[in-house]
Prior knowledge:
By secondary structure, the chain is an alpha/beta fold. The chain is 38% helix and 17% strand. It has helices at residues 2-14, 47-50, 53-58, 60-77, 82-92, 107-111, 168-180, 198-205, 219-223, 233-244, and strands at residues 18-22, 98-101, 116-118, 121-128, 134-136, 155-159, 183-187, 209-214, 227-230. The strands form two sheets. It has a six-stranded parallel β-sheet with strand order 3-2-1-7-8-9, with helices on both faces. Strands 5-4-6 form a three-stranded antiparallel β-sheet, with helices on one face. The longest helix is centred in the N-terminal third of the chain and has 18 residues, at 60-77. The relative contact order is 0.20. The mean pLDDT is 94. Bound molecules: nicotinamide-adenine-dinucleotide and zinc ion. Nicotinamide-adenine-dinucleotide is lined by residues 23-29, 32, 34-37, 102-105, 120, 188-190, 193, 213-216, 218, 232-233. The site of nicotinamide-adenine-dinucleotide (NAD) has 28 residues, from strand 8.
Amino acid sequence: MNKLIKKTADLxxxxxxxxxxxxxxxxxxxxxxxxxxxxxxxDKIDPMEYAHINSFLKDPEKVWKGLLIEMGEIISQAxxxxxxxxxxxxxxxxxxxxxxTQNVDGLHQFAGNSDVIEFHGSxxxxxxxxxxxxxxxxxxxxxxxxxxxxxxxxxxxxxxxFGEMIPEDSLWRSRKISSECDLMLVVGTSAVVxxxxxxxxxxxxNGASVVEINPEETPLTDRITxxxxxxxxxxxxxxxxxxxxxx
Length: 247
Ligand code: NAD
Ligand code: ZN
């Protein structure tokens, strides 16, 4: 493992443009359960039943009660862990340009990263299905479920449900920087949710190196990854940060 950490540190130091792609796994050590893998949210509930846009539109009360209220509580109590903090340190030392995250928890910005593409939107905001007005999630009145906008319209989180399109600008910019980078750090993603999982492929095809940090192998590991750092994001990032000697 020490050799792989050293190899990754060298890749980071020699790279002109490093970006990161993160997934639910990086927030596990902050107490937010992932979608897949051990201890996942979907051991308890079926994603297609709760996180598909058609399910939400058909029965918003069920989705708010079975998923969204709990998600809001968990996210509001979560704080960045050493995985997020390590990526923030990389940016502070001009060793990381941009993070493409599939997470909706806002923890990268909380940790201090300034350029974060929220590929699947953000749970920090809700919007009204009628008048489209945004409302901060912390200000939503949950005494009535599903909660409503002041106009009486239904509120939905500003995240991408399964069955919805990725916002055009996020997709466009993610593809662009993936094709331009010479190193991509892929942290805590199962790499099975399209189109986010295409970004490492784009990077690789354009000559970039790919480093993966994950306690479990993914479909990328054998095919695309140059350096697989097996382990929890926080622990591995701490090792990387000390190998780089950055503060
Ligand atoms: P995923 O749930 O499909 O996969 C999680 C991955 O993280 C797995 O490969 C697992 O092995 C790995 N993992 C588990 N613990 C880890 C740790 N401590 N350190 C590093 N890796 C760890 O996640 P995904 O690939 O991001 O895709 C699922 C979708 O889930 C995304 O679209 C995202 O929007 C959504 N989601 C977001 C959050 C969040 O905002 N924190 C939480 C759950 C799901
Ligand atoms: Zn409204």
